[in-house]
Amino acid sequence: MKRRGEFELIAEVFAPLAKVGAGAFTSAFGLGDDAAIVKPPPGMELVVSADAMVRGVHFDHTTDPADVGRKLLRVNLSDLAAKGAMPIAYMLTAGWPPDVGDDWIKRFAAGLAEDQANYNLALIGGDTIATPTDLVLSVTIFGQVPSGTMLRRGGAQPGDDVYVSGTIGDARLGLLVAQGTLKAADPDAAFLRARLDRPSPRMRLGQELRVVAHAAIDVSDGLLADLGHVCEQSGVGAVVEEAAVPQSAAARRALALVPDERRSLATFGDDYEILFTADGNDASRVVALANRIDLALTRIGRIVARPGVRVVDPTGGEIPYDKRGFQHF
Amino acid sequence: MKRRGEFELIAEVFAPLAKVGAGAFTSAFGLGDDAAIVKPPPGMELVVSADAMVRGVHFDHTTDPADVGRKLLRVNLSDLAAKGAMPIAYMLTAGWPPDVGDDWIKRFAAGLAEDQANYNLALIGGDTIATPTDLVLSVTIFGQVPSGTMLRRGGAQPGDDVYVSGTIGDARLGLLVAQGTLKAADPDAAFLRARLDRPSPRMRLGQELRVVAHAAIDVSDGLLADLGHVCEQSGVGAVVEEAAVPQSAAARRALALVPDERRSLATFGDDYEILFTADGNDASRVVALANRIDLALTRIGRIVARPGVRVVDPTGGEIPYDKRGFQHF
Q1: Among the partner residues B56, B153, B218, nearest to A32 by beta-carbon distance
Q2: Which residue of B has its CA nearest to A230?
């Protein structure tokens, strides 16, 4: 497999990415140095988060390398969105196995460059290593929020309503399309696959939620698992109305083909929507927000004092969910 | 292989690390959130750097997991030292393959905890994933310098002297000890192996160099390669006197057993000493500094206008070096 040496790769493929979307708040020295300076403007606080992906778990040999680049940035951007933060820059650490060549890396970098421009962030450093076998990609992302306003997992209170943005479960069905298990026709198949490969981090929603939400998290491990993280950090519980969990029209049609998957939609994850809680008296503010940013915000349940996440049917009867979400191991 | 689930692992093994060495300048929310805030004090600038390690390249099955933890932090601390920065905190991204169990991870975390206390830094976040095969560990480290004073690779000027701290080549010989190729006796064998497994990042030297050095870099890729990085970024060249490159007494004795390795010492890397350049008129300041911090600072050559790094013998004749350093692939 033809591949450039480490320093050539950095100079030719990655150094140009240090120039895309570079703002006033970083100095990466063209990646020619071994460190960068990050300095948010006065009154802003620096928020940092990290997410990694590995071939065979988060994507596979058939995934377009440009989509891998886009998704790597978007899952990290989604973390910032759930904090109410705007992106500044990122560091990339890549472990390349022997079977990954220049072509793959260049196409991956093209995906990064595209989303750097879309989301206004710059590459400011990182590391490249050779791995024996696995293709491992890790990003540390830097964002900013007005000081003291970062959204947290730990602020949910009994009586809060629980909301989720967009639709849940498309990525799970997209994976079944990719694996050939779900024989949906286009445009549904393409839509579901795109929701898996090119999630839409809810940056604008995150910005707006800083003044409405009590707690927020992005849905990556699974709706119920992530709601569980919020409850645990907040010292509360939640009741979710299963029928209220929003599904796309494509997902509803696809579920007719794979009815056994119904229960997996709220536990698979990879949705990159934002789950948040807000005071029960603020329902009209949430509706107004949804209209203003043109994004569905659906009330799916409420926060209660009793710990644990319970899922109920329209009569209030509890629906057992053995699996709550994706555990990475 | 027995291993906890992801969330148990974070709660039991890594959350305690968020409490060791935590300073006033970070909030990691006990790792219970998905992001952290990093805020250097007024007048200080945030410096970020990243370094990764993978089993089979940077360490192997025989390396003590605690040493892997220590080295992972120390190679990142060494990057900060070369910038004149003091450590604040770090993010850890770990990819665990199926054969790595709880015991390995706990001992790795014990090494991290020990060096967090030694170097006064805290774990503030990161990510854990399962990998199919490789054990991959990546750190993004955060440090601080007085605004505008970060040491760079790009400031070397013709007429500067080139210095290196400590001794060069011990890690290469330590690897030969580990591999069984070099049959040195203790205490030399233990010393060389310790220099490989437990490098000493030169934090205090880095602090002091902010007011003396024109350019600095830590020696990780190999002395000649890293000097080459400085020259390239500075638009200059260098002449190195091979006989002046400092060797430990243990290295000199070991070289008698493996004389063919003589030329590899300045190209192997993994030394984590600091190479720097200073004005030719500042030699007495460098000597005074070496005495003050009790660390050898050896003049090994000079910066010249002509690009490239040349190695010379005592008569000024050029010594050919085909390989200048370690390329990761």
Answers
A1: B153
A2: B33
Confidence grade of residue B23 (pLDDT, cut at 50, 70, 90): low
- Contacting residues for B286 by C-beta, under 8 A, at least 6 apart: B161, B163, B212, B278, B297, B299
Nearest residue to A213 (alpha-carbon basis) of A313, A129, A285: A285
User: Nearest C-alpha of chain B: how many angstroms from A56?
Assistant: 7
* Cβ contact B310:B255 at 8 Å: no
Spatial contact of B81 and A68, defined as CB atoms under 8 Å apart: no
Q: Which residues of B3-13 are buried (b: 16+ CB within 10 A; e: fewer)?
A: bbebbebbbeb
**Per-residue 3-state assignment (H helix, E strand, C coil) for A46-108:** EEEEEEEEEECCCECCCCCHHHHHHHHHHHHHHHHHHCCCEEEEEEEEEEECCCCCHHHHHHH
Nearest to A325 by CA among A241, A217, A239, A223: A223
Residue B33 has its nearest CB partner, among A46, A58, A153, at: A153
Q: Which residue has the tokens 């503030």?
A: B124
- Nearest beta carbon to residue A152 from set B33, B39, B79: B33
How far from the centroid of its chain's Cα atoms is residue B154's Cα?
Answer: 19
Greater confidence, B156 or B20? B156
Judge whether A59 and A68 are in contact, CB under 8 Å: yes
Chain A hits for B229, Cβ within 8 Å: 32
One-character DSSP codes across B237-286:
EEEEEGGGS---HHHHHHHTT-GGGGGGHHHH-----EEEEE-GGGHHHH
CA angle A150/A90/A80 to nearest 5° reads: 25
Model confidence over A38-80: pLDDT tens digits? 888 889 999 999 999 999 999 999 899 999 999 999 999 999 9
Average pLDDT, chain A: 92
pLDDT in tens, A176-196: 999 999 999 999 999 999 999
- In this prediction the pTM is 0.92
The token pair at B236 is: 């200059």
Q: Do B54 and A131 touch (CB under 8 A)?
A: yes
* Domains of chain A as residue ranges with CATH: 6-146 (3.30.1330.10), 161-319 (3.90.650.10)
Q: Where are the beta strands (DSSP E) in B55-130?
A: 86-96, 122-130
**What length does chain A have?**
329
3-state helix, strand, coil in chain A (%, to 5): 40, 25, 35
